[in-house]
Design goal:
The chain is α/β, with parallel strands linked by helices. It is about 45% helix and about 15% strand.
């Protein structure tokens, strides 16, 4: 079985966090007997073809180098909305991606094309699938379906991509419920794998330290985490891992809230550096709203660090309240703060939640079990296409 991945976010180098979960799926599938190649966009400093952990990656050019900035920053939708040049670059992006998929289907002859995110990759892949006859699998990771909330006019295009797909997968049951009306068959719930060999308890845990991991944006809820911190005892320190356009404003807010001495800003970190800080913390604070899955919560569980978040989006698939972590009503900052404080103050509770969380995450997000699920999705897609 050969699977051709198409993604606008995929690691540019070993240890890069961009699309690392897709690389995790690719390497897991190889161990499961599926040959995987990847098509991803070019960017400054990247070779046209490279190999990362044995996975061949073909990078396509779509604009003069100065304008190849749509991918890898997590701001594609905002960039396109604000800039005419970005809109032109997006059109070129989809056209070049389509041509590259067709070239690879002709030369390599994959059994299935696997588009990650219906937009923009599913748009290109659906055209290439129709022209090449290679069946298409489309996976929604969350941001692509969130796009439809702000751009409802895009629903016909999303419907076209999903109904052109032999199979649609979603990384959480919450996303599957949203995608279902757009699909001709029920979406398959199939999360991405966690790096179970990387994320494990390491070193000594600080009893007064909590951690936030994510983009510094409204959707990830970092401001909510900061306001929750003001409701906790002053000895609790918050490690913030991530970057984003709101970084400077958030640091200023920390000053206004009197939190400058209680927050440590680590910025972007390589994926391999996360287990140390996750294992050091007593809890992960994850105030995400409408998160597609929240794989970082599973990574925290693997480190026996209980995640605490809102009962929103895909987090309800990852966290079982008072069993593998804690969930509170979306937007209830006081309840979020109390749940974190309760875990920090009760080492026995933290240990119970942490050990149960690791067992559950190993079973649900292990690369082997996720790869088996996707290999079956591919077999079903090929069988469906042959009818």
């Amino acid at each position: 079985m050969k699977a051709l991945f198409v993604a606008h976010s995929f690691p540019r180098f070993e240890g890069d966090a961009a699309g690392s979960f897709i690389l995790g799926l690719a390497t897991a599938l190889v161990q499961h007997g599926v040959d995987v190649r990847v098509i991803a966009p070019s960017a400054a400093g990247l070779d046209r073809t490279s190999v990362i952990r044995g996975i061949t990656v073909r990078r396509f050019r779509y604009a003069p180098r100065a304008y190849e900035t749509l991918a890898y920053r997590g701001t594609m939708a905002d960039d396109v909305a604000k800039s005419v040049i970005a809109k032109v670059a997006l059109g070129s992006f989809i056209a070049s991606e389509t041509a590259t998929i067709l070239s690879q289907t002709s030369a390599w002859k994959p059994d299935v094309i696997h588009a990650h995110w219906w937009f923009p990759n599913g748009v290109a892949a659906s055209t290439a699938s129709r022209l090449s006859g290679v069946p298409l699998v489309t996976t929604s990771h969350g941001s692509d379906l969130r796009l439809l909330q702000h751009k409802p006019g895009a629903r016909p295009l999303a419907r076209y991509v999903f109904r052109r797909s032999a199979r649609v997968t979603c990384v959480s049951s919450w996303l599957a419920a949203q995608a279902a009306p757009l699909c001709r068959t029920a979406p398959v719930v199939a999360p991405m794998p966690a790096a179970t060999s990387l994320f494990e308890p390491i070193g000594t845990r600080d009893t007064n330290r909590i951690v936030f991991v994510g983009r510094l944006s409204v959707q990830k809820g970092i401001e909510t985490a900061m306001r929750a911190l003001t409701m906790m005892t002053r000895n609790i320190i918050l490690d913030v891992i991530g970057d984003g356009p709101d970084g400077s404003a958030l640091m200023e807010l920390a000053n206004q809230l009197g939190l400058s001495d209680r927050i440590q800003w680590h910025g972007h970190m390589k994926h391999g550096e996360l287990p140390q800080l996750l294992s050091r913390a007593s809890a992960l604070i994850a105030p995400f709203l409408d998160e597609g899955l929240g794989l970082v919560a599973a990574e925290a569980q693997l480190c026996e660090t209980p995640p605490v978040g809102f009962a929103s989006g895909g987090l309800v698939d990852v966290i079982e309240d008072n069993v593998t972590g804690a969930l509170v009503a979306p937007g209830d900052i006081a309840a979020l703060a109390a749940a974190v404080q309760g875990i920090v103050d009760d080492p026995a509770l933290r240990e119970r939640l942490g050990k149960a969380g690791r067992v559950t995450a190993l079973a649900r997000f292990s690369p082997a079990s996720v790869a088996e699920r996707y290999a079956q999705v591919y077999r079903d897609a090929v069988s469906e296409d042959a009818k």
